[in-house]
Structure formats: C-alpha cells, structure tokens
Design goal:
The chain has three helices and no strands. By secondary structure, it is mainly α. The protein has one domain.
C-alpha cells in the first residue's frame, strides 16, 4: 500500500505492471491474463484493486493532506 501511495495509479499500467516481480513470477503477460479469464477480465480486476486501494488510502490519509 505504501508503494501505491507513493506512486499512485502509475503502479497499475498494464502490461508493464505484469512484467515486474513478484507478479512476473507467475508467468508472462498472456499467462497472467489467462488466470483472470482474459485481458478484459484482468483489466476489470486491476481497476477494482485500484478503487479499493484508493478508498483505503483516503480513509487513512490525514485531513491536513486534502
């Protein structure tokens, strides 16, 4: 979560995010997309993850940073 807070949505650029460890340890981009049922379902999952992380960060962020 700290990494996401520091770098924001740039952390989730597909396919780049799938090419670095520990995610890349699971296979290449096509293989990883296959775990999700295809590229479109992978994108939906990544979008949902971003939404959840943003919500958690918004709750944890001190009001002085708004």
């Amino acid at each position: 979560m700290k990494k996401y807070a520091e770098h924001g949505t740039a952390q989730f650029v597909i396919p780049n995010v799938l090419k670095v460890p520990p995610i890349s340890d699971r296979g290449n981009v096509v293989e990883i997309a296959g775990y999700f049922g295809g590229a479109e379902k992978l994108k939906v999952a990544v979008d949902e993850l971003q939404t959840l992380l943003y919500a958690v960060l918004a709750i944890r962020r001190p009001k002085s940073l708004y």
